[in-house]
Structures are given as structure tokens and as C-alpha cells.
Write a structure and sequence with these properties.
Low-confidence stretches: none
Radius of gyration: 16 Å
Mean pLDDT: 94
Largest sheet: none
Structural class: mainly alpha
Number of domains: 1
CATH architecture: Orthogonal Bundle
Oligomer: single chain
Strand content: under 5%
Order of helices and strands: HHHHHHHHHH
Distance between the termini: 51 Å
Shape: globular
CATH superfamily: Hypothetical protein af1432
Bound molecules: zinc ion
CATH topology: Hypothetical protein af1432
Amino acid sequence: MNEYVTRQELDIFLKALAFAAEMHTGQVKKSCGKLPYINHPIKVAGLLSSISPKKDITLLVAALLHDVLEKTAADPAGIKAAFGKDVLVIVREVTDDRSLPDTERKQRQIESAGRLSPAAKKIRLADKICNMRDIMTYPLGWSRQRKLAYLEFAGKLAAELRGTDKMLERIFHREHSAAVRAIRGGE
Ligand code: ZN
């Protein structure tokens, strides 16, 4: 398999980007100032693209769409029709139940981590790396305690995702330790 992206693959990737941007219209990433929400899935897809030794357009398209079912009015049938069943299955796997409170959702992410497909595991881990980067980059207005609680959750989840991808796990652990040290150091 060659590593060049074909015209058709680029078209579907850009179609997913446009779809996600449209669905997330008006949304901003919580506490990241006025940063449009779409920057988040773009960063998750970008991280996965940069660490993947092999081209995987299905993974990258699913990464762009990973929050549309959870956070927008996008419907599963539309995703399936436009991007295929494989993409929909992955997006569904990483979609939390919106009716549950935050702590319960996080607990479920930890409990279900081991049952996810390899692609869904990669998206979960890349998602947490990008969220940690946001915590370290933006003022957020979070208390030290809240930041540490998030890092604790991310650490537990990453432990359940062990074996997902060496490179991704190395990045996670390096940045997680640095974040914990930086935030604890300020105590
Ligand atoms: Zn996300």
C-alpha cells in the first residue's frame, strides 16, 4: 500500500472536515476562550496522522467526526450515508451517553476502554492528549484541584488503553507526567 493520499481520500477527508465544522457551528471548546470547537477534532486527527506509520483515512475521518454525535445534532444515518459504516461504528464507540452526569461518563469511559476497537482506542487516547495540551496551554480558569482530577482520570483511562499504540502511549505518558509535575509544582 502506498502512503500517498489519493484524490478520493483527500476529498472524503475534506468532506468530513466541512461536515464537522458545520455541525459544531457556534460551539467553542469549553474554557479555551473563543477557540472554535472544530479546532479540537482537527488536532486529534492531526496527532493521529502524525504518529501513524500507515495511512488510515477511516481513522482520520472518524477522528474529525468523533464528537459530532455527542455534541451536535448530527444523525447516525447521515454519517453512515456520507462516510460509510466503518466510520460510524468508530464514532459511535467514542460517543458518551449525554444523559449521564460527567463523573459517570468518565467512569464508563474507563470501564469500556478495553472493549473498544483499535481505532476507537487510538481516538480516545489522542483525545486525552489534546485535552491535556489544552489544560496546559489555555488559562481555562480551572482550579489546580480540577486540573489534577482530570489528569488522574486521563491516567486511569490510559492504563486501560495500554497496548493501543506505542508512539501514542509514549506521548501520553511524557506529557501526562510533565503536566502533573507542573501543576503539583505550583502547589
Ligand atoms: Zn473530543
